[in-house]
Amino acid sequence: MHNAYCIQYTRNENNVKELNKVKSGLNSSSNSSYRNTMPLADQSLSALNNLKTREEMVADAIRQAILTGRFKPGEKLDQQDLADSLGVSRSPIREALRTLAAEELVTNFAHRGVIVTERTTEELEELLFMRMMLEGAAARRGAESMSAEQLDQLEKIVIAGEGSTDTQELLRLNNDFHNSIYEAFAQPVMMAHIQQLRNKIAAYNRVYLEQEGRKEEAWAGHRRIYEACRNGDGATAEAETRKHLEQVFEGILQARDQA
What we know:
The protein is built from 11 helices and 4 strands, in the order H-E-E-H-H-H-E-E-H-H-H-H-H-H-H. It is mostly helical and 259 residues long.
């Protein structure tokens, strides 16, 4: 089950590619702070209007840029720059930012404008605790339920992640990896809550991966989780998932302190 807030790399891959290419946008923006930040385009928004409203498409594009770390926590989002980049008026931009504020992905300050939401250490700790509880349990259930075909696909994801150096691809593969395990057991309510929690911290994942040695650390953890799944060992899968999430949290705090 995926709600409207989910990062849907696998299920909506074609839509995501299109959303990340709407209009040749920020790659050609006159504002250098946005250039190469959120490539949004080969075709216009109108080409996809049969799927979603303009406001929904704009919200999807900005949301995706936040969730994948193209817009970083604390970064100001200028409405006119976004409008120019997406080839729309400021009206759908305003509506999109209201939607994202309701999702707690952006924050509107009276004197600072709209920024990508920053999390305090206390917030990150609480989100980590909740994720460890839910994702650990989801991993246990999934590990004990995976078919041979699902395990083979999981192994392919691990091998791809170990061999990749592209941050964007690694973020997608990371999402695919965890979802493949959790979705092996039918737990749609759990998945909805997990995804909402993951979205609240997703903007920090790029910060973590861009630290030296963190990519190798993350995928070593993924391989241990995979081996537990291959062995049908739910308890170990749960423990390794919690350990993996704790390592990510420590890396995020370290990167933030060094910034």
